[in-house]
Specification:
about 375 residues, alpha+beta, Cytochrome-c3 Hydrogenase, chain B, three-stranded antiparallel β-sheet, about 15% strand
């Protein structure tokens, strides 16, 4: 008796699979519950909260200056930028004037932080895809940035350097010269990474045409940063809504074309070059003297009202929304965390993909779980 077509076909049952929360490729304590049929993903459910510390709630019992160290622990590989985002919101509410020297120190540290963060993003992404060497290499260049930060503020990861009205300390003697010397050194290293990674056929086969989404989808999900710009949409708050002294610098906003994993990788590379370009100009314009902290009340009290200010963080728009009753502590605080917002698209991106592509897609979204969970 001949078998029917259905009987001849290979039958598989759907299976629920846990990815994480301790898996190294999930970039932190992040869990994905995926329903698969064979190797194909049918559904994917992100499960967050393993790193939740209640930062927004804790802020209600903290003075504004006491909140700054807590921002270090959000996107902990971009702590300088987190510091600034909070201080910037409070400063706008108080209409404070920031000294020139402090503004330049802020720009230099934030853009060096962007380079350090992007280095780690590229290195860890290549590790996700099975390439060990780039992951080891990026720590050498990142270490030089970390050492400079250590000289500046005495810390290597969580800096607590920014202050409402400026920065905590001035640059030590010779520090600006170190930054100046780092720029050509880093440009040579970027060329090395480009030669090592970008044209690699195995790498290209893993990332080209994978995890594709368009501008309409990105905007519908509220994506920002590299994830949005990979679709070709020109949106960078340093250009569109300039803050600090970014309008004094000449730099470009790199854009993708296809909205795939390769575009998101290459934008990390190109953004590092643009950050170096900003730092180079800032070093040349750096004031020879002056204060690094403006005239700030001993007790910072934000006038009653609601305030929001967003900046271009490493992973997109990072913003602080403050509700104040005129006291020295916020009545309510809400943080607009780009990693959390960008993560929302993941279930849609993973539908119909193979398990092999899951890590490639997640890694390209580039999340930091401290920021997702806050």
């Amino acid at each position: 008796m001949a078998l029917t077509d259905e009987a001849q076909s290979i039958r598989t049952e759907e299976m629920i699979l846990n990815v994480g929360p301790q898996h190294p490729s999930t970039h932190g304590v992040f869990r994905l519950v995926v329903k698969i049929s064979g190797e194909t993903i049918i559904e994917a459910e992100p499960v967050i909260g393993y790193l939740h510390r209640g930062t927004e709630k804790l802020a209600e019992d903290l003075q504004y200056t006491q909140i700054i160290p807590y921002t270090d622990r959000l996107d902990y590989v971009s702590a300088m930028i987190n510091n600034y985002a909070l201080c910037h919101t409070v400063e706008r509410a108080l209409d404070l004037e920031i000294p020139e020297r402090a503004e330049y120190l802020r720009i230099i540290t934030m853009e060096l932080q962007r380079v350090a963060s992007h280095l780690l993003a590229v290195g860890s992404y290549l590790l996700d895809l099975g390439a060990m060497s780039p992951f080891l290499y990026v720590f050498q260049e990142r270490e030089r940035i970390v050492q400079m930060f250590n000289e500046l503020c005495g810390a290597r990861l969580t800096y607590n350097y920014m202050r409402v009205g400026g920065v905590k300390w001035d640059a030590p003697p010779g520090w600006i010269d170190q930054v100046r010397d780092f720029i050509p050194f880093m440009r040579k290293k970027l060329k090395m990474y480009d030669d090592l990674i970008t044209g690699n056929e195995i790498f290209l086969s893993r990332v080209r045409g994978i995890g594709v989404f368009n501008t309409e989808t990105a905007l519908a999900y509220g994506l920002s940063g590299i994830n949005l710009r990979s679709t070709g949409f020109d949106w960078d708050l340093r250009k569109k809504k300039p803050y600090s002294i970014y309008n004094r610098f000449d730099f470009e906003v790199p854009l993708g074309k296809n909205g795939d994993c390769f575009d998101r990788y290459i934008l990390h590379m190109q953004e590092m070059e643009q950050s170096l370009r900003i730092v180079e100009q800032a070093v040349e314009q750096f004031p020879s003297s002056g204060p690094v902290l403006g005239k700030v009340p001993k007790m910072v009290r934000v006038p009653a009202g609601e305030y929001y200010s967003g900046i271009e963080g490493t992973r997109g728009e990072l913003g602080f929304y403050i509700v104040s009753e005129g006291k020295d502590k916020p009545y309510r605080m809400k943080i607009r965390k780009p990693s959390f917002v960008n993560l929302q698209l993941l279930p849609e991106l993973l539908k119909g993909q193979s398990m092999a592509n899951l890590i490639a897609i997640l890694g390209a979204v580039d999340i930091v779980l401290g920021e997702v969970d806050a």
